[in-house]
Amino acid sequence: MNQPITIVRLSPDSDHVATVASWTFAEWGHLNPGYAADTWREALRRECGDGGVPSVFVAMEGDQPVGTAALLAEDMDSRRELTPWLASVFVLPEWRGQGIASTLIRRVEQEATDCGVHRFYLFTPDQQALYRRLGWRDHEELSYRGEEVTIMRRQLEA
Ligand SMILES: CC(C)(COP(=O)(O)OP(=O)(O)OC[C@H]1O[C@@H](n2cnc3c(N)ncnc32)[C@H](O)[C@@H]1OP(=O)(O)O)[C@@H](O)C(=O)NCCC(=O)NCCS
Question: Which CDD domains does the record cross-reference, listed alphabetically (predicted)?
Answer without folding.
Answer: NAT_SF (cd04301)
